[in-house]
Amino acid sequence: MSEKQQSLITMRPGEKVIIKEIAGGSSLKRRLNEMGLNRGTQINIVRNDGWGPVLIALSSSRIALGRQMASKILVEKAG
After folding, report:
1. In this structure, is residue 1 part of a structural domain?
2. 1 pLDDT higher than 60
3. CB of 75 within 8 A of CB of 19?
4. Counted domains in the chain
5. How far from each other are the two terminal CA atoms of the chain, in whole angstroms?
6. What is the pTM of this model?
């Protein structure tokens, strides 16, 4: 993980981030891919209370990710 990359669970609501890496097994990568979450995808953080699921926005969809899953998604702040 580079210095700029952080886990998705460390991001605050309102931030826009780009997925840089998925640090999980093939099953997790396939599941996230089916949801449209791939390397290079820009997402918005809708809710991250520090407990419970992380709610993200992808296009016009809202996706709730469990904290374990979200912790394996490495992102950088978008531009």
Report:
1. no
2. no
3. yes
4. 1
5. 19
6. 0.89
